[in-house]
Structure formats: C-alpha cells, structure tokens
Design brief:
CATH topology of the largest domain: Rossmann fold
Oligomer: single chain
Mean pLDDT: 87
Number of helices: 12
CATH class of the largest domain: Alpha Beta
Radius of gyration: 26 Å
Distance between the termini: 80 Å
Strand order of the largest sheet: 6-5-7-8-4-9-10-11-12
Number of strands: 21
Helix content: 25-40%
Strand content: 15-25%
CATH superfamily of the largest domain: P-loop containing nucleotide triphosphate hydrolases
Number of domains: 3
Shape: globular
Length: about 450
C-alpha cells in the first residue's frame, strides 16, 4: 500500500531534510538552501522497483567465493585507462566531475568513439545538448562511428527503456544533474532527483553489467554538486582539473574500487579535442628559463608515475606592514612552515619580503618530498643565485632543519636520467637504499644548511 505524499524541505547543498523550512542548514551551514519537495515513498516510485527479490542472498564463507578475472574494456585512450586502473570494469559506475568547459563531455565522446571503433555498441545520453550539437562536436573531434549511438533525453524512465532495448556495452549520462524522474515533483538537479537517478542507474549497472559513466557538475568550491551520497554510491570518482586558460588538463582519481587512487592522466586541449601527453615531464620543462634565479626542478610521484616539474619562487622586498605569501600549486601552510625553517635555521631575513610561488604548467603537488626544492627555490630568488640547470632537488624538510628520507627515489632518478639531469641533491637516508645511476651524481645532505652549501 502506498502512502500519501507529504511535503519535506531538503537542503540543496548537502541533502539534509527537515519537516519545516529553515533559514540555515544545521548540517552544512548554508543559508537559504532549503527547497520544498513532495515525494511519496510507495512501491511505485521506489528506486528499487524492477529489482526482483525472488532470490535472496545468503552469507557464504569468503574463501569459497570464486574469483573471476575482470575483463576490462579499453577506451583506446591510454591516459584514461591508466586512471581507471586498466579500463572499464563490467557493471562499474564511474562519476567524473570538473569545472564548466574543462572538457568532460569532450573526453566522454572521445572515449566512447574509441570503444565503438573496437566494435562495442555504446550509448551517449545528453541532457544538455541536442543530437545536432553532438554531431557537430563529433565532427570536430573526428569521433563518428556507426556503433556510437547518441540521444538527447532527461527522462530517466525513457533512458532505462532505451538501455533495455538497445543493450549497449557502455552507457554515458551527461549529466546526472539533468536527469528527471516523473515520480518526484522536485525539479531536475535537486537533491532528491540526483539521489534517485543515481540509485536507479547504479542498480541498472549492477544488474545488467553495463559500465556506466556519469558526468557531474561541480560547485563553486570545486566539489561535485549534489548529495555526498553520490560519491559514496559510485565505484570510481574522477576529477578533471586544470585552468581553462592553460592547455593542460589533469584527470585524477580520488576513489577507485578497481584500481589505485593516485594515478593521473595528462591531456592537452587542442583544436581537434583532447590529446594525450605521454611524457608530461618534457612538456612541463619545455619552457624552463636558463640560469634563472628562483627556478628549481624536482620530481613528484603521481601514483606509480614520476613527473619532473619546475618550481618557481620570487622573493622581493615589501613596502607593506605585512609581507604577502601567494602560493599556486602547493600547500600554502606548508610553504609558510618552510619559510619559518629558513629564517630560523639559515638566518635568512624573509620577514620583510613578499614571497610568491608557482608550479609551472598548472600542476598541483601535495607530497612533502618536494620540500627541499621549495626551500631551494625561495633561497635562490632571495640570494639572486641560480641553481644549476641539470640539478634535481629532492627531500622532505623537518622543523629542526633536518632533511628526511623519501620514497620511490629510484623511479624519480630514472625519470631524471631520461630528461638529461646529471646531478641530484637528495636525503642521505634515501641514498643508502638506492643504486647510483651511471650518468647522475648523487649528493646526500642531512640538513638544510648542508643543502644550501652544496647548491650555492
């Protein structure tokens, strides 16, 4: 038996529900975010409808479960496959978010074209563009194939009916915020609509085994719009990062039940779409200036991939009462900590200097293994002395001024060797477990004072 519909008020920022309207959400603190919704919980509009309960699962010993090798579906885009863990897994639900215009739809269309070129039937459902717009985009991207089906639809019931009729091998929903269920009275994009649509698409993916990719909008804070339940529900969450004013885009996995969450894929936005960047180190160092004070190269690990990046620092005297600290691509708090270590342990008077830091190419680094490179870049700019061009700087810096050991040194050195670096400043503790490459001189340092003596 069904129950009569009653009004509830849902926060459109976090999904918190209240029987009455509230000016401020007690869960997330947002003001004026409550909207009235009417949704009767009945057998008809339950998201579990269509899922039979004839066969009920029973608990079994975990060691008795047969393990089957998952056959992954390749998109013919190596960077995307790497981030996914080797390709799409049958029945998986993938959520990809990013800023408007960053290239989410372009990436999805190119990925579907690659799968269609391999003979798989794929379905691209757009709730934001007409089929004519999709055809124009596919013409520009040279992404047209007879097995690539496109449709413009927001009615979720109609979409699931199409999936049942055409039985595609891969389904893309662009975007989940535009999907609409007629059983709910709220508008598309509301908390209840997004939650119900995602739940039904997840159940369809698990039941049919069709990998489903959901494109999601993001808020002004950079988080995927909608309830946090959306990210918990899916198997993989990908963020497409980058500045629209830069040509490089980075695809990063923040959740992956079928692979590593540390892998990244690097793309370059071109007139014909997104092009893979197989050697990001060469691209990020291609425009590095010669003998420039404040420029230091370090190696950061993104999953299993080492990437060489250029750190740039500018220290200039300030006429203001409080010196500025502007940091792009690094943790500002970490940089402030390193500046304090430099003032205390090296005796550099940085209190009256503005310090600006940037990671060339728009890359974001969050590992402490680049601490010594940050410190070296600031010191180089402050002293107006350039670090040798073929020198790589690695190491974590502690509050006592010690240089601590880091991991994956061998992989970083191998990448540096490929890029023509002949000298590496690294922690003494890390060099004990590393075989010295033939073409690279390794210099071990134990403190920041030793590092400054070697560099300058």
């Amino acid at each position: 038996m069904g129950r009569s519909a009653k009004s509830i008020f849902s926060c459109q920022a976090c999904g918190y529900q209240s029987p009455k309207w509230l000016g401020k959400c007690p869960e997330c603190g947002q003001w004026d975010s409550f909207a009235e919704e009417k949704a009767a919980v009945t057998e008809k509009n339950s998201p579990l409808r269509g899922i039979t309960a004839a066969v009920k699962p029973t608990p079994v010993p975990i060691d008795s479960v047969d393990i089957e090798d998952q056959q992954r579906l390749s998109s013919r885009i190596a960077e995307l496959d790497r981030v996914l863990g080797g390709g799409l897994v049958a029945g998986s639900l993938v959520l990809i978010g990013g800023d408007p215009g960053i290239g989410k739809s372009t990436l999805m269309l190119q990925a579907l074209h690659g799968m269609a070129a391999n003979g798989h039937k794929v379905l691209y459902v757009s709730g934001e563009e007409s089929v004519q717009q999709l055809r124009l985009r596919s013409k520009r991207l040279a992404a047209a194939a007879p097995h690539l089906l496109v449709v413009s639809e927001i009615d979720l019931d109609a979409i699931l009916q199409m999936v049942s009729e055409h039985r595609p091998d891969v389904l893309v929903i662009d975007s989940i915020q535009t999907m609409y269920s007629s059983d709910l009275t709220s508008a598309p994009g509301s908390i209840s609509q997004v939650r119900d649509s995602a739940m039904r698409l997840m159940l369809n993916a698990k039941k049919s085994g069709v990998p489903t990719l959901l494109v999601g909008h993001v808020t002004k804070d950079g988080a995927i719009a909608g309830p946090k339940l959306l990210e918990h529900m899916v198997d993989t969450v990908l963020y497409f990062e980058g500045d629209r004013n830069h040509v490089f885009r980075i695809l990063r996995a923040v959740k992956n039940r079928f692979g590593s969450t540390n892998e990244i894929g690097v793309f370059e936005m071109q007139a014909g779409g997104l092009a893979e960047v197989p050697n990001p180190s060469a691209v990020f160092l291609s425009e590095r200036p010669d003998n420039a004070a404040g420029s230091v190269v370090t190696a950061t690990m993104e999953g299993t991939r080492p990437i060489l990046v250029e750190l740039q620092a500018l220290a200039s005297s300030s006429n203001l009462g409080t010196a500025r600290r502007t940091v792009l691509g690094l943790d500002p708090q970490r940089v402030a900590l390193l500046v304090a270590v430099m003032e205390k342990k090296l005796g550099l008077d940085l209190f009256g200097h503005d310090i600006f830091m940037n990671v060339a190419g728009g890359v974001k680094i969050d590992e402490p293994a680049v601490d010594l490179a940050v410190l070296a870049a600031i010191a180089s700019s402050f002293l107006d002395k350039a670090v040798a061009r073929n020198t790589l700087v690695l190491g974590e810096v502690g509050l006592a001024g010690e240089v601590r050991a880091i991991g994956n040194v061998s992989a970083r050195l191998t990448e540096a060797q490929k890029m023509g670096f002949h000298r590496c400043i690294a922690p003494k503790g890390s060099l004990k477990r590393v075989e010295t490459p033939a073409d690279i001189e390794l210099v071990g340092v134990g403190t920041v004072v030793e590092a400054m003596e070697v560099l300058f």
